[in-house]
Amino acid sequence: MEKESTNSSNPKTFKKESTLNKASGNKNFKKKLITRLSKIKYEEKIIQVTRVTKVVKGGKKLTFRAVVIVGDGKRKVGVGVGRADDVNLAMDKAILNGKKNLITVPLTLNYSIPHVVKAGYGACHIMIRPSSLGTGVIAGGSVRTVLELAGIKNVVAKQFGSSNILNNAKATILALTNLNQQIELGKYQSTRRQGFYDKIMRKYKNARIYN
User: Fold this and answer.
1) In angstroms, rounded to a whole number, what is the distance separating the alpha carbons of residues 143 and 156?
2) 24 phi and psi, to 5 degrees?
3) Which residues are within 8 A (CB) of 75 and not within 5 positions of it... i.e. 6 or more apart?
4) 36: helix, coil or strand?
5) How far apart are CA 108 and CA 132, in angstroms?
6) Helices marked H in 40-141 — which ranges?
7) pTM of the model as a whole
8) What is the DSSP code (8-state) at residue 152?
9) Which of 41, 69, 148, 199 registers the highest number of CB atoms within 10 A of its CB?
10) How would you write the pLDDT of the chain (211 residues) with one tens digit per residue?
């Protein structure tokens, strides 16, 4: 009994206990974060599943490629591509890839985009135009699915050039990212312009006072 009491009174043992408690606390915090992230629900739509053959020294190797669009319907959307020997594995890889490459889309009060935007990926070109309430999503193919999963409800989109499913989906995501960048630039420019006009007004007021 005496030995036990002496060990507990040691400062070294007290330090070890405190470090263990901290480590356990960090683990619990990480577990909570993982559970929070897993609770976020995303909609997944499989656009395309194709067989891809690769010519190897021994002959032809057959694999599957899956293209999946992931989105929460509230400003977040992403396109994922996955390749594997099995279809289910390819789909799982594509979903993971899509979740990694999510982008945020700026929405207006009409659940539309702020302004017209154009983008191109490969031979595919796309134009997305905002529209009024009650219009719906006027688009086709993979462009429609991307816009719907992004949470855009009133929009008009037009495809030009190639009708490749994956390239059109990537072109729409490029257009939506450009839209985001332009909005950020516009905010910065507006503050700069406001400062410029304020300076001009001060000069004008000073000139009037002196005259």
Assistant:
1) 10
2) -65, -35
3) 104, 105, 106, 107, 150, 151
4) helix
5) 11
6) 87-100
7) 0.69
8) -
9) 69
10) 444 444 444 544 444 455 445 445 555 555 554 445 455 688 899 999 999 998 988 899 999 999 999 998 888 999 999 999 999 999 999 999 999 999 999 888 888 988 899 999 989 999 999 988 888 999 988 999 999 999 999 999 999 999 899 999 999 999 999 888 777 777 777 777 777 777 777 776 676 565 5
As its CATH architecture, domain 43-187 has: 2-Layer Sandwich (3.30)
Q: Where are the domains of the chain?
A: 43-187
- Please report where in the chains the tokens 């816009």 appear, as a residue: 147
Cα angle 28, 42, 176; round to 5:
120
Residue 145 CA, chain-centre distance (Å), reads 15
- Residue 119, CA distances (Å) to 4, 83, 130, 156, 172 in order: 73, 26, 15, 14, 7
132: which 2 tokens? 């009024």
Query: How many degrees, rounded to 5, is the angle at CA 203 between CA 198 and CA 206?
Result: 125
